[in-house]
Specification:
Elements (H helix, E strand, L loop, with lengths): L9 H10 L7 H18 L11 H18 E4 L10 H8 L16 E4 H12 L10 H7 L5 H4 L6 E7 L4 E7 L10 H30 L4
Helix pairs in contact: 1-2, 1-8, 2-8
Length: 221
């Protein structure tokens, strides 16, 4: 089922309105500036990014989280009498929490023994998925000329979209993150709203700075 989440753009619209008189930019250019800034910020706080982890540090954090999750529920073991090796992919599928993407060991008392090559194969497969959620913004980034990390762009534009409305009266950019589980990720809607607000405050600070400079040049203190 496709779910839609609406966000509050009022603060961003006010900052664009307040900045407009102080710069030699059209409203279209200011909207593009806002969209570029939002895209950079939302990718920078999309899991596994956040809490001071950005760029390559975020990628490494995501891979470390995967290794830690797998270690909680399975352990590489050799084939020997009396040991039944489990399928690591089946274990991962069964214990993965769809809301967070993390593994929930529930009441598991000890890790399942699994075949070592199969475990390494699963780990490589999961490592390759790091950045998948952030890739929901790839189409917008490409359209706006925003450069994203390679571990995000490697997932392509298939689960992202951008739409531009350009008429005599309106100019609007709509960015869509169409990753199928995006609305199931806990608190992600708040992260997106935070990225909107951060960009709004950046543009408002720019407007305040330019207004203050103009007043000083006019003799006001």
């Amino acid at each position: 089922m496709k779910a839609e989440v609406k966000f509050d753009l009022r603060e961003l619209k006010r900052s664009i309105h307040n900045l407009a008189p102080h710069v030699k930019k059209s409203r279209r250019e200011l909207v593009e500036q806002a969209a570029r800034g939002f895209t950079k910020e939302v990718v920078a706080i999309t899991p596994p990014a956040g809490k001071g982890k950005r760029g390559s540090a975020a990628k490494k954090a995501g891979e470390a989280a995967i290794k830690a999750d797998l270690a909680r529920v399975m352990i590489a073991a050799a084939r020997r009498k009396g040991v039944t090796l489990q399928d690591p992919r089946e274990i991962h599928k069964r214990l993965r929490d769809l809301r967070t993407g993390r593994i929930n060991p529930r009441n598991l008392k000890r890790p399942y023994p699994v075949n070592a090559p199969a475990l390494r194969s699963l780990q490589r497969e999961l490592f390759a998925r790091v950045g998948e959620l952030a890739a929901g913004w790839n189409a917008g980034a490409q359209k706006l000329g925003v450069q994203l990390p390679a571990w995000v762009t490697r997932h392509g534009n298939q689960r992202s979209a951008v739409d531009v409305l350009n008429t005599a009266r309106h100019f609007r950019i709509t960015l869509t993150n169409a990753v199928k589980y995006v609305t199931s990720v806990a608190t992600y809607d708040r992260r997106v709203q935070s990225a909107i607000n951060i960009q709004a405050r950046k543009m408002q600070r720019q407007a305040d700075f330019l207004l203050t400079r103009s007043l000083r040049r006019a003799g006001w203190k």
